[in-house]
Design goal:
Helix content: 25-40%
Shape: globular
Structural class: alpha/beta
Radius of gyration: 22 Å
Distance between the termini: 46 Å
CATH architecture of the largest domain: 3-Layer(aba) Sandwich
Length: about 450
């Protein structure tokens, strides 16, 4: 039975999937816009550091005031309204909640939210992919140990890429490469919240109208988010990553199967079976027609002459040799699609992407010369950007994960362009996120280094 049919049955039986949302910012608001239009779900509660801001966002997406007047979670369950408050612990521990949607965008807080949700028997759809990037394999293990499901969020590009990879493998195709698009020029890695809108292609007025966070959007632009998302994909699918960071080859949709081939066949890949990001800009800044900037793609191989003939007969989108075929979606709808993950987790018991290994890591890398006493401000800020590296390389150097580079003091000088290590910073070792990361390293790093 389709997910939609199952949701309709839940609606008819008055047994909705009961959801708790943590964080009602831009991404959360997009999901909230769809909740009233989806049968078989009830958003019982929203936890946000600023309940008033959350209510403003609810109004922005079309919710009536009456819908958010539940005085408590229990009252929400009785009336069908939604409770809005600050207490996320009450939300994740309430026995009636089925699924927690973690939507804060704050990786350190997200880890704490996920762990307590698992402890209370809740499935988690984790929108905060920054958290998954630095400890996703262990979060997945802890969820499985608690007999709950931990999932990446559909609508965000990693889950969509995982879906394409799963399609390819289920059909019997070897995956040559998979990834997303991005607007990229090399100097974007130096971008700050002050320069983001000009580089991104929005006016400050458009950004303000949309309630867009410049630091968050700068993390998209400066390469941090593409690295984070490719890490999540690699760890969920087993694909490998470039040895020294993403290459961002420029290509139109038509040229993706041409550039996502091994180097010896005229492409850019070190080997088959990798993640990569396609740039929508030529090196000189010229915009490429029919780009994949907002989309996702997978390139597969036709291993036999018969399969390659089928590609040709049905006008499949291949490279000139006819061996490599690319399937793509040119857009993703972000929070508007999260309902797919909620339904999949609750009704099918299936994640829409979840870490199965530790293949990749995102290491904090200096945007400028850093001096002792400087404070790191995480992805999208003024001090560091995230560089995608193989987990083996990160383990060997003791790389500082970007997800933990928030409000951390620099302990020794670091040159612009240098990736930071644990010894470069004065780390707060008391947080749950730090402990989870170190626990993950103890479980996964030793086998990696032993096989190196």
């Amino acid at each position: 039975m389709s997910l939609y049919a199952q949701l309709q049955r839940r609606e008819a039986d008055q047994k909705p999937i009961r959801i708790g949302l943590i964080g009602a910012g831009k991404f959360g608001s997009m999901y909230l816009a769809q909740v009233p239009r989806t049968p078989g779900v009830q958003l019982v509660g929203i936890a946000d550091l600023s309940p008033d801001a959350a209510r403003r966002n609810l109004t922005r997406v079309g919710w009536s005031d009456a819908r958010t007047r539940a005085a408590s979670l229990d009252a929400a369950l009785k009336t069908g309204a939604t409770h809005v408050g600050e207490d996320w612990r009450a939300l994740v521990s309430h026995p009636a909640i089925d699924v927690i949607v973690e939507c804060t965008g704050h990786p350190i807080a997200a880890v704490e939210h996920c762990l307590l949700a698992f402890a209370n028997g809740k499935h988690v759809v984790n929108v905060t992919v920054e958290a998954d990037a630095f400890c996703g394999p262990l979060l997945a293990k802890k969820a499985a140990d608690a007999d709950v499901i931990y999932s990446l969020a559909f609508g965000d590009q990693p889950a969509l890429i995982c879906d394409l990879v799963d399609w390819a493998r289920t059909c019997g195709f070897p995956v040559v490469a998979a990834g997303r698009g991005h607007k990229w020029l090399p100097h974007f890695c130096e971008s700050t919240p002050e320069t983001v809108w000009g580089n991104y292609g929005l006016t400050p007025e458009q950004a303000e109208r949309g309630g867009l966070n410049p630091k968050m959007f700068n993390s998209f632009l400066d390469g941090s988010k593409p690295s984070i998302e490719c890490t999540a994909v690699a760890n969920a699918t087993g694909l490998t990553v470039p040895s020294n960071g993403l290459l961002y080859p420029p290509a139109s949709v038509e040229d993706i199967p041409f550039v996502t081939r091994p180097i010896e066949e005229g492409g850019v890949l070190e080997r088959k079976g990798m993640v990569e990001v396609i740039s929508s800009l030529e090196a000189n800044g010229r915009k490429i027609p029919y780009d994949i900037r907002m989309g996702v793609w997978v390139t597969v191989e036709g291993e036999t002459e018969y399969i390659r003939n089928c590609f040709e007969e049905y006008n499949a989108h291949t490279d000139p040799s006819g061996r490599y075929f690319t399937l793509y979606k040119r857009w993703h709808l972000i929070g508007l699609e999260v309902g797919m993950s909620v339904a999949s987790v609750a009704l099918r018991g299936e994640a829409t992407g979840v870490a199965t290994c530790w293949n990749a890591d995102v290491v904090a890398t200096a945007k400028r010369d850093l001096n002792p006493g400087d404070m790191l401000d995480g992805e999208g800020g003024y001090t560091v950007w995230g560089k995608l590296l193989p987990a083996k390389s990160s383990s060997r150097m003791g790389g500082l994960p970007l997800g933990l580079a928030h409000d951390v003091k620099v302990a020794r000088a670091v040159k612009k362009g240098q990736s930071l290590s644990w010894s470069d910073v004065a780390m707060d070792t008391s947080t749950a996120a730090y402990k989870v990361r170190r626990e993950m390293e103890s479980l996964f790093a030793a086998p990696l280094l032993k096989s190196a």
